[in-house]
Amino acid sequence: MYRQYENPYELNKYLCELEAEYQTLIESGVDADEENFIDLCCEIADIKERINFAWQDDEYDYDNRDYEDELWIYENVYAVYG
Hints:
Elements: H1 8-27, H2 35-63, H3 67-81
Helix pairs in contact: 1-2
């Protein structure tokens, strides 16, 4: 399966938002068995894994950079979907 390259900084912003929502739910005394709480916990775990992969991709690409390819990705992926 092909994995799209993701921006770890953007994922980290989203993770901070999810963790703030998680903290709000904890402070409000939400029951741990509620479906939305469980979904939120799963989404946080998924984002952490995606951040890990994004950093690994970034570190790998640092040694093998192709600036023309990066420009194409920026113009055709990040600019359209970002």
